[in-house]
Amino acid sequence: MTPPRLSRSSDGADRGGARGETLQAEIDLLGALAYGELTGFLRLSAHADKAPTLEQTAEVGALAVEEFHHYQLLVERLRELGADPQGAMRPFVAAVDAYHERTTPNDWLEGLLKAYVGEGIATDFYREVAAFAPEPTRDLVVRLLDETSGAEFVVGAVLEATERDPRVAGRLALWGRRLVGEALSQAQRVAADRSSLTTLLVEGGGAGTDLVAIGKMFNRLTENHVRRMLRLGLTA
Amino acid sequence: MTPPRLSRSSDGADRGGARGETLQAEIDLLGALAYGELTGFLRLSAHADKAPTLEQTAEVGALAVEEFHHYQLLVERLRELGADPQGAMRPFVAAVDAYHERTTPNDWLEGLLKAYVGEGIATDFYREVAAFAPEPTRDLVVRLLDETSGAEFVVGAVLEATERDPRVAGRLALWGRRLVGEALSQAQRVAADRSSLTTLLVEGGGAGTDLVAIGKMFNRLTENHVRRMLRLGLTA
After folding, report:
1. Could you tell me which residue ranges the Ferritin-like domain spans (chains A, B) (predicted)?
2. Which of A64-73, A132-141, B35-44 has the lowest average pLDDT?
3. ipTM confidence score
């Protein structure tokens, strides 16, 4: 399902109010993604430190490093737009930090599932966003998607753990529900607070249109999350 | 001052005992460096999480990511040599972990100084090692050196902090002494335990030759450390 495209010229010719609003929305978007990647890097590298083997330290470390590179690309794009990267990230600090505080993994497997679920939702969100964003931000986001190697090793680790002890599946299913719930709840909070961001995501319409479109996007993210949980042999 | 080169053919034609010993030494060397880089990545990213600003989080994060890339290159080389990377790192886990446990920074500045001092000593050590190692390990080590961006932003941060409060200089000078002391002490421990490693570093000679050569190398590392501390306006 293709989300509605924002009807705008991408050559920046429409200056003035509309252009200013779109620019702010673009900066918001990049700032939110950048802060998400930076904290993702910090959380994943902290989790890598708890790995049972050096090999797993390196696997999770590689995911962390990937997030840091995305952060660097997003900051570069913010600078190109003449924005201050720290200022652009600031409005999203509270929501992203709250997500991480409420989803601190209790053990190695919970951390792996968080990495997998988080990366999945982030990738889906990028994909949605890529369709709306003006160039060259759209290109950048697509590049980040192409580069994402995926936390595929998590699938094997989870299947192995639930095979060894089937009770683990119930606990991880609950954990997955909590992760997606917290992620969407914080995303809703951001969408409500930053109307500039939601205007980017929806084609201009009457009052309430954006909320409906955002709601539909969240539904798509949730559906994909359910599919990913099934791949792990977990109910969602 | 050029350290003595190991007199050996680099084409791998000298198989048998001598070749086996050199290969073990090369694996030891790569394993020690790899574990150092991997833990460096973990420690630096944990420190990045404590940064006072997001900009500093990113600066220290970039150092962490650099270490992870070095780790990946070293592991790749270990695999080329047919070695198991985890097995190659294992003998050095105790010494490296002990170094980090004994040098846990008490605050942001101590962590920055540790990054600066640690990277300085590691870079010097790489440089020494590059002269001894067979190809293509030598090339790899030189590449890592060229890629090292340096923790130069630390110089500004330390100078600024000591200008604001001159008492900080005394505390950081003591901390620098502790860092280099612990680093060399753990390196001595490794040199004593892993004779294969020290044979790589010295030209074949009578008993004791290697200890003398190692001692001289440590002196050079210490001299360079003193120079770096002076650049920070700190006594060493």
Report:
1. 26-204
2. A132-141
3. 0.77
